[in-house]
Amino acid sequence: MAFWTAVRLQPNRTAVALHCLQLRGFTVYCPRLRERRVRHGRRVETLLPLFPGYAFLWVVAGWWEARWAPGTLGLIMDGLTPTKVPLAVIEEIRARERNGAVELPDHRFHYGDRVKILAGPFRGHLAIYAGMSARERVAVMLQILGGPQRVTLAERDVEAVTS
C-alpha cells in the first residue's frame, strides 16, 4: 500500500538528497515559501523550504532504500515502520501553492502599518511594519540612532496602532 512519509535531510544538502531520492524512483515533495530579502542593496526573492531539514516522500515499496540515500538522515519512524503522513495534509499544502511557492494566510499587518512594540528594550516605541521573516518574526523600522533602523521582533511583541 502506497503512502506519504517524511524524510530528514542533512543540513545544506537538500538538493543532493532530493535528487538521489528521485534517482531511486521515489516521488519527493519539498514545499517551499517565497521570501523577499534585501541583498547588497537589491531586493531578491528566494524560495526556502517550508519545513527546513525535511521533505515528503511517496513510498510505493522498498522504503528502506530512502533511509540510505545520500543527503538524508533517515525517515521519520513510528516504531519499525515509517510514519504515515495523511494524504489530506499533502493536499492541503499543495492547495496553497501559487507559482511554485506555498502562500500562508495573511498576517495581521501590512507594509507601512504603524505598530506599537509591547515588550523588550523598545517597549512603548512606535514603529512601521516592514515585513515578516521566517519563524514568526516581524521586521519593523524604528526611528533611533539618528535614522530609521530595521529591528526584528517576535510577532506577539507587536500590535497595530489605530489612528
Q: What number of structural domains do the residues give?
A: 2
Radius of gyration: 20 Å
Tell me the CATH architecture of the largest domain: 2-Layer Sandwich
Compute the number of strand runs. Answer: 15
Helix and strand element order = EHEEEEHEEEHEEEEEEE
Task: Give an overview of the whole structure.
The structure is a single chain. With 163 residues, the protein is mostly beta strands. The chain has three helices and 15 strands. A five-stranded antiparallel sheet has the order 14-13-12-11-15, with no helix packed on it. Strands 2-5-1-6 form a four-stranded antiparallel sheet, with helices on one face. Strands 3-4 form a two-stranded antiparallel ribbon. The mean pLDDT is 86.
Question: Could you give a short description of this structure?
Answer:
The chain is built from three helices and 15 strands. With 163 residues, it is mainly β.
Features:
mainly beta; 163 residues; Alpha-Beta Plaits; SH3 type barrels; 5-stranded antiparallel beta sheet; 14% helix; 15 strands; 2 domains; 4-stranded antiparallel beta sheet
SSE blueprint and pairings:
Layout (H helix, E strand, L loop, with lengths): L2 E7 L4 H10 L3 E3 L2 E8 L2 E8 L4 E6 L4 H4 L4 E4 L1 E2 L2 E2 L4 H9 L1 E2 L2 E2 L11 E4 L8 E8 L3 E8 L2 E8 L3 E3 L3
Antiparallel strand pairs: 1-5, 1-6, 2-5, 3-4, 7-8, 9-10, 11-12, 11-15, 12-13, 13-14
